[in-house]
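Entry 12.
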Amino acid sequence: MTRLTIEHDSPGDDTTKSTRRGSIALRLDGRAWLRVEPEAFGELGVAAGDEIDDARRAAVEQALARVRARLFVVRSLAVRMQSAAEIEKKLAARDVPPDVAREAIERVAGYGYIDDASLAGQLARGMQSRGYGRRRAEQKLRTRGLPGQIAEAALDEAYGGRDEVSLAREALGRRAVADDADRRRAIAFLARRGFSARAAWKAVQDAATDKPPEAV
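Predicted 3D structure (tokens):
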């Protein structure tokens, strides 16, 4: 059994590295044990003078791992909206155990910070508005780790009410289609943007005859 002492680093202490300023050092019988972020300390349930046996030591270390995983997820999402799969991959890269990662993701999702359906809808609408075909949008959602059913629902909402040829014609804009070489380049452009061969060919034919995009 060992006794816990707690040391709070002083922000003005020049001997403390900037990355550790304000952190809390936990010591057992004077020996270094853990260095804890202030926002995580309150969840560990320890106080100066506590007697720490092996079981409690393991419990505190596990609690700290859970808190740190959750804090990492919140901070990562504050920078960029991400799918649950993307967050899970990041946690794995930090060697966070799968069960700890799952708990962190579930807790943060409960706060409303992780919403795969909202992210899928945002991405699908953005791809459609920027002139990309459904196939390219589907690829985008897949690379972001969004589940199949959620991705399909978002794509149906963004693309389901629009004719593919009309979308391809809009994406083509004023690209030249004066001769065969122009038309081949235009079709290749639309194919890269995720439109089917049929829609790309029809859109280029419409452009060649100056037929405007069909009204929605």
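Annotation: The two ends are 75 Å apart (CA to CA). Residues 54-79 form the longest helix (26 residues).
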